[in-house]
Amino acid sequence: MSEKRMSSSKKHSLKSMMLQVAKELLDAEGIEKKEERKRYMEEHCPVLSYPSSKQELEELCKELHAKIEAVDEERYNLEHKAIMVVNEVKDLNIKIVDLKGKFKKPPLKKVRMSADAMLQALLGSKHKVSMDLRANLKQVKKEVKEEDKELRDVGDWRKNIEDKAGMGGRKKMFETEA
């Protein structure tokens, strides 16, 4: 396949088009966020109506104070719960540290123990399990090959070297191997 390269002017124009599209998308996203913020404020914050008389103003103040008291009470309850949880965590951490300090781990010593003794220690004296693995193995007699005997019975090494020296010796080596 022949891959054609773009000219630099075409690359530049493509890049500028991509940047322009990205800018338009960012602008649209910004406008959408402003509209969302405006909708949220209209839903959650009603338009403030100024009271025209002193009595209406007093009622508005009473309503606002009641809302403030409810929010303060809820905030106080949440703070109290958070403080209780933090204190409980601190107490549990202190208990953990105390328990760790009470039980010191002794330094363990290496003990040589057979497999039978280890199983007896783990399972108790009632269970008798034999771990003598060598008892079930077959005995094999070693066969001695004739080649091994020849290698062992070399005899005088000087004589062997003299026999194999020179062209005749090499010929003997090849004849004995074949």
TrEMBL record:
Troponin I is the inhibitory subunit of troponin, the thin filament regulatory complex which confers calcium-sensitivity to striated muscle actomyosin ATPase activity. This is Troponin I, fast skeletal muscle-like. InterPro entries: Troponin, Troponin_I, Troponin_sf. GO terms for biological process: cardiac muscle contraction; skeletal muscle contraction. GO terms for cellular component: troponin complex. Belongs to the troponin I family. It comes from the Eukaryota. The gene is LOC113071168. PANTHER family: TROPONIN (PTHR13738:SF13), TROPONIN I (PTHR13738). The lineage of its organism: Eukaryota, Metazoa, Chordata, Craniata, Vertebrata. Residues 54-81 form a coiled coil. One of its GO terms (molecular function) is actin binding. SUPFAM superfamilies: Troponin coil-coiled subunits (SSF90250). The keyword Coiled coil applies. Keywords: Actin-binding, Coiled coil, Muscle protein. The keyword GTP-binding does not apply. It holds the Pfam family Troponin.
